[in-house]
Write a structure and sequence with these properties.
about 190 residues, Alpha-Beta Plaits, disordered C terminus, 4 strands, Arc Repressor Mutant, subunit A, alpha+beta
Length: about 190
């Protein structure tokens, strides 16, 4: 039996769900972002208990098919941007349509109607958040970050970063260093 969980976007979320299921003596085959495959068929009481336990951790059990599909789209984007090191697919719309077994136009329209933003904007926002994260870690050059996140060039990354944040990547990185210098002088 599959259950679908909203706001499940990290390894920590997966660990929390595993703990909840173990505490309820439920056996799971797989716990993925937004989706859990449980061996048992849940009773209404068990489903209510899972719902209550998930809420305590900031997660939510989903029942509506449209909500589940929106969450699957979000999780596919998050997985691609934050957890995939391999070469990105050239055409994400085709990849998403094949992965979710729906026409991309349907997915795109549903996503826009439900969230108020486009899938493309959602992808860009997540990519910029990942760029910020990598800039703060200060382990990679801007060229390496652009390559890792599959930008066509450093200029493309920089332009997109500035459009979204209002700052250049270099200035954003300098802000972090200035903040650290200020802490050292306290």
């Amino acid at each position: 039996m599959k259950i679908h969980i909203k706001y499940m976007v990290s390894t920590r979320c997966k660990m929390a769900v595993r703990d909840i299921l173990r505490n309820m003596n439920l056996h799971f085959v797989q716990v993925e972002l937004g989706e859990v495959d449980i061996m048992e068929t849940l009773t209404p009481a068990q489903r209510d208990l899972i719902r209550a336990e998930l809420r305590k951790t900031g997660l939510e059990l989903m029942d509506e098919k449209k909500d589940i599909l929106i969450e699957k789209i979000k999780n596919a984007v998050i997985e691609m941007v934050h957890y995939t090191e391999a070469q990105q697919v050239k055409n994400f719309s085709d990849h998403l349509a094949a992965k979710l077994n729906y026409d991309y136009t349907y997915l795109s329209n549903l996503f826009s109607e439900t969230t108020g933003t486009t899938i493309e904007r959602f992808i860009i926002n997540h990519k910029i958040e990942r760029v910020k994260e990598l800039l703060v870690y200060d382990e990679l050059s801007l060229t390496e970050i652009a390559y890792r996140l599959h930008y066509s060039s450093v200029a493309h990354l920089s332009n997109q970063f500035k459009k979204v944040t209002g700052l250049t990547p270099t200035f954003f990185k300098q802000l972090k260093h200035k903040r650290l210098e200020g802490l050292e002088n306290v």
